[in-house]
Design brief:
elongated, 71% helix, 3 strands, single chain, mainly alpha, 18 helices, three-stranded antiparallel β-sheet
Length: 451
């Protein structure tokens, strides 16, 4: 265990040595895990957007029989069955076979991808567990340490393992950078990529090849059970912060690297904590942080954005109600506004107070609500949009005038200027920019009258 290099962790010098990676074994393990997290985050961004995030899970489970077969074959031939390159080669072989089985099930049967993933994952993992039972019955099988590939054993990483991870990381990052544009087209529109002359099949093969490579080198660090976490959690967390693929890819790599670094350091500081589990828990913590505080899709940001949207809609309803009330009467009283919509008295008072704060309405005598000059212009615009949409629904969608108000209410707040121009063109209502007359005054034809 790398934690054995340090004595009492209450000593601040030991903590400083750990954080500064002064010990050779600690440096090997932490840097190797960090490179793995960085690469998994970058590659996982493409698989997540390609909607093939769970393919890495099936691939990881499909590697187990290959590990056992490689050990048995090497032992039978008199070679070293514990050779890591040999075991990883066997894992890669059955991993690719598992991916091919998934693609074959999808292509030649009517089963969906989720069913194919479940079938391949369970069958290959069951075969691997059975073969591990056979391995344990061999003379040297009990000391093979193959169970570390299931749950990972980061603390046992050697310098050769770290160099292997570094080589695979450089290869995957270089391919991701060189083929970034093509992979972006594949993730968002494979048909368009094919139309531009890029082979979607070859791009898929390249992406799956990188997934296989990352999964194989990650078996030693976090194990096949937890490897899927490094491919999914960092890009999923990055998705809360940005809408741009390049920024998401870079951020996912940073989150993956930070998770692996923190998990490996935490495991070194507390020897009883397994490294793979700590890496995944650190990644989960960053995911929860991103889900709550992400600047694009975080829960708090979405809540505040929706709250502002609902407040704007309520304010627009108030302005339109005041305008329509003054059309049919000399003034818009508080009681009259209460009758026009399903407001409560406290809710309406709060809406009026917020509108007064924005200088859109003002209170007059006898509980009267008046529009300011700024509020009048805004109310005319809103009423015009609402009635244009109402008239369109009546004349082009055959909606009865008595029932059109609810439908117009649902869409008027998201009308863009181009849509309004199109409605005006269809309805020929360019009359000085003023709202048209309310279509509710139109009497329905006898055959359209409600029964």
């Amino acid at each position: 265990m790398i934690a054995a290099a340090f004595g009492d962790w209450s000593d601040w010098r030991g903590a400083a040595d750990l954080l500064l990676l002064r010990d050779y074994n600690t440096r090997v393990v932490v840097l190797g895990a960090t490179l793995l997290g960085l690469t998994a985050g970058v590659v996982g961004s493409f698989t997540l957007l390609r909607k093939r995030a769970l393919l890495g899970d099936a691939l990881a489970h499909a590697t187990l029989p290959g590990i056992a077969i490689a050990f048995l074959a090497a032992s039978a031939l008199g070679a070293d069955g514990k050779s890591l390159p040999l075991l990883l080669a066997g894992a890669a072989a059955t991993g690719v076979l598992g991916v091919g089985a998934i693609l074959a099930i999808r292509r030649f049967t009517r089963l969906k991808e989720d069913a194919a993933l479940g079938i391949v994952l369970s069958v290959f993992f069951g075969a691997g567990a059975a073969l591990l039972g056979v391995v344990q019955q061999t003379p040297t099988g009990h000391a093979a340490g193959l169970e570390s590939f299931i749950y990972g054993k980061t603390a046992a990483m050697l310098s050769s393992d770290a160099w292997l991870i570094a080589g695979a990381a450089v290869a995957c990052l270089a391919l991701s950078a060189l083929c970034f544009k093509e992979l972006m087209l594949l993730c968002f529109d494979a048909g368009f990529a094919s139309a531009r002359g890029f082979s979607a099949g070859w791009l898929d093969t390249l992406l799956m090849g990188m997934v296989v490579l990352v999964t194989i080198i990650g078996l030693q660090a976090v194990g096949l059970v937890l490897m899927i976490a490094l491919l999914v959690i960092p890009p999923a967390a990055a998705r809360f912060w940005t809408d741009r693929l390049l920024a998401m890819t870079l951020l996912a790599g940073a989150i993956g690297a930070a998770s692996a670094f923190a998990g490996a350091v935490a495991s070194a500081a507390a020897p009883k904590l397994p490294s793979g589990a700590m890496i995944v828990l650190c990644a989960a913590s960053l995911f929860l942080f991103s889900a709550l505080l992400g600047s694009r899709r975080g829960l708090i940001v979405r809540y505040r954005r929706r709250r502002r949207f609902l407040q704007r809609i309520a304010r627009e309803h108030l302005l339109r109600a005041v305008y329509e009330a003054t059309e049919s009467a000399d003034s818009a009283t508080f009681a009259r506004l209460l009758e026009m919509r399903s407001w409560g008295a406290a809710e309406l008072r709060q809406l009026i107070r917020r509108a007064r704060h924005k200088e859109l309405v003002q209170r007059g005598p006898a509980a009267e609500v008046r529009l300011t000059s700024r509020g009048l212009l805004e109310a005319q615009r809103l009423t015009r949009q609402h009635r244009l949409w109402e008239m369109y629904l009546i004349t082009h969608a055959d909606v009865a005038p008595s029932r059109v108000d609810r439908g117009a209410d649902a869409i008027e707040h998201v009308l863009d200027p181009e849509t309004i121009d199109e409605l005006e063109r269809l309805l020929d209502q360019r009359r000085l920019g003023l709202p048209p007359e309310s279509p509710h005054a139109i009497d329905p034809a006898p055959e359209e009258a409600p029964r």
